[in-house]
Amino acid sequence: MKWRVEINGRLVEIDAAELDAARQVEPGVYSVLLHGASFEVRLIETPQGLRAEVGGRRFSVAVLNPRDGARNARTSIGAGLQNVSAPMPGKVIRVLVEAGDTVDTGQGLIVVEAMKMQNEMKATRPGRVIEVRASAGATVGAGDTLLVLE
Fold first, then answer.
1. How far is Cα 73 from Cα 78, in angstroms, rounded to an integer?
2. pLDDT per residue over 50-91, tens digit each?
3. Does domain 82-149 have CATH number 2.40.50.100?
4. Do 129 and 101 contact (CB within 8 A), yes or no?
5. Selection from 101, 105, 146 nearest residue 122 by Cα
6. What is the phi/psi pair of residue 57, to 5°?
7. Which strand (E) or helix (H) includes residue 100?
8. Distance between CA 95 and CA 39 in Å, rounded?
């Protein structure tokens, strides 16, 4: 699947495999490796839409919904259902929420151990837990959906 992102009015297609170069380090902040260089990208929701800040530069950003054939269909960060996925293969150590729980931005959701490090997946926005698909002790693969937020 290809994601279509509009950056300062210019359409860019990003292959899902290329998304492996981006890791969320905290809510709204991503570490991106691109052509051997590392970048910190901050995504900020503004009344005018989504804005990205990289190296002191600001860009207006719109993510085009890959499931919608309409050229101008846009999704907002935080709109609709959100799948929380395992960033790499590992083992679920703890599930910190249950279906029906209300969560706040930055709240811990689930802890996955990978490469002898424990990674706590956190909510990127306020919401409600719709479904928990992983349990403590379960082995998960990269990209597996661990839980779903509304």
1. 15
2. 888 888 888 888 776 555 544 444 444 445 678 888 878 899
3. yes
4. yes
5. 105
6. -105, 145
7. none
8. 31
Question: Please, are residues 147 and 98 in contact by the beta-carbon 8 Å criterion?
Answer: no
User: Hey, what are 23's tokens?
Assistant: 């890791």
Which tens digits make up the pLDDT trace of 81-140? 788 888 788 999 999 999 999 998 889 999 999 888 888 888 888 889 999 999 999 999
Please, what is the end-to-end C-alpha distance for the chain in angstroms?
A: 23
DSSP string, 24-69: EEETTEEEEEETTEEEEEEEEEETTEEEEEETTEEEEEEEEPTT--
Contacts of 87 (CB under 8 A, 6+ apart): 23, 112, 114, 119, 142
State residue 71's pLDDT score: 43
CB of 112 closer than 8 Å to CB of 90 = yes
Highest averaged pLDDT of the listed ranges 6-10, 46-50, 97-101, 139-143: 97-101
Judge whether 111 and 93 are in contact, CB under 8 Å. Answer: yes
Domain ranges of the chain: 2-75, 82-149
